[in-house]
Amino acid sequence: MTIERDAALDNLKGLLIISVVYVHFYDMLGQKTALLFTIRTLVLAVQMPLFLFLCGYFGKNAEKRRRAAWADYLIPFVIFNTLYYMVRVEQQPELEYGLLRPLNMYWFLLTLLIIRVLMPELVRIRWALPLSIVLALLAGGDTYFGRTLSLSRTVCFLPFYLMGYYCTTEHMRRIRKIPILAALTGAAAGALLSLWLTDTLKVDQDASHPFQLVNSYVKQGLDPWEGMAFRMGIYIAAPLLGILLIRLIPSKRCILTGIGRGSMTVYLLHAFPMLWVVGNWETVCGVINGLIPAFQGVEYPGRLCYGIPQVMMLVLYSFVVSWILSCRPVVRIYDCLIEEVQQLLFRPEKTVENEKKVESVQEIN
């Protein structure tokens, strides 16, 4: 029996993966207008926390997820983390390759791998969710919790995964019925908290934002109290912003539905067209200036109209790339290639399961 997918959650995944492409393209281009930085801050406050929440929500069969984790996440990580380095090093020769040190966006695969492997034991711990928040706050004081094995992000995003794991279908139904005014008020509070922390603690715009949870407090240039304030801020702001998105996301099938279903291929592949665009930026600007005469003479990074044209360009690019990379032919080719590699590296299980694959698994897996 095939369970019908929830189109609303597919749409939400589609929106989130587009925002992932948006932030990565912004970071590579180096646009620094106030509007763009503000949008980036708000996106970072909810983007990955909500993704981890959805992974936890659809990962309730912890034992089954653990068995599949090595093949589902380790293989794509080794392949695409290596390919990304081979392409990126031509533009950035000083870039160092690290097998256990994820480059750019591929930390997410290691984080999911570690969480999925540990989940059957983690769910046995009493008060796992509040304890995971305490652990995340303490981890920021340890400089060893950084990019290696994606430890910092794994520990700090674990609370959001647990929130999703403990969220039931009834909880989700209640979230979708929250009065829109209440959801808007909560999201406004979360947005103001995110922007207030960023402005008050003077975040370095050239460094990773504390909401990315990648560095210790010292490496982030924050003292322990400031660092913990930022981390507590995201544990407050992200649920408030996430509730609004869950409440507003349409439940009807639309173009976001297909993008959400193919979010894995978008996530793994979107860096490569992005690297080409950045590496050929002068050519791209020439084409844009030819098509839109008003942009002629605007030097990169432009500050035209407070960055509004840049926002439009980033959004359009992110949407188009996400749509192309989520198309069925791309997904089928990826699935076939990964399946071949899995069969080559992993022995088949001794126990034969007769259950059919259920299409209700709506996460990056």
Please write out the topology.
Blueprint: H1 7-29, H2 34-57, H3 62-91, H4 107-122, H5 128-139, H6 151-166, H7 169-176, H8 180-200, H9 224-248, H10 255-261, H11 263-269, H12 271-279, H13 281-291, H14 308-325, H15 328-345
For the structure shown, list the relevant keywords.
365 residues; mainly alpha; 15 helices
Question: What does it look like?
Answer:
- The protein is 67% helix and 0% strand.
- The two termini are 21 Å apart.
- It is mainly α.
Explain briefly what this protein structure is.
With 365 residues, the protein is an all-alpha fold. 67% of the residues lie in helices and 0% in strands. The longest helix has 30 residues, at 62-91.
Question: Tally of extended strands?
Answer: 0
Beta-strand percentage range: under 5%
Average of pLDDT: 85
**Can you tell me the overall shape?**
globular
Number of helices: 15
Helix content: 55-70%
- What separation lies between the terminal Cα atoms? 21 Å
> Regarding quaternary structure, how should these chains be classified?
single chain
The Cα radius of gyration reads 21 Å
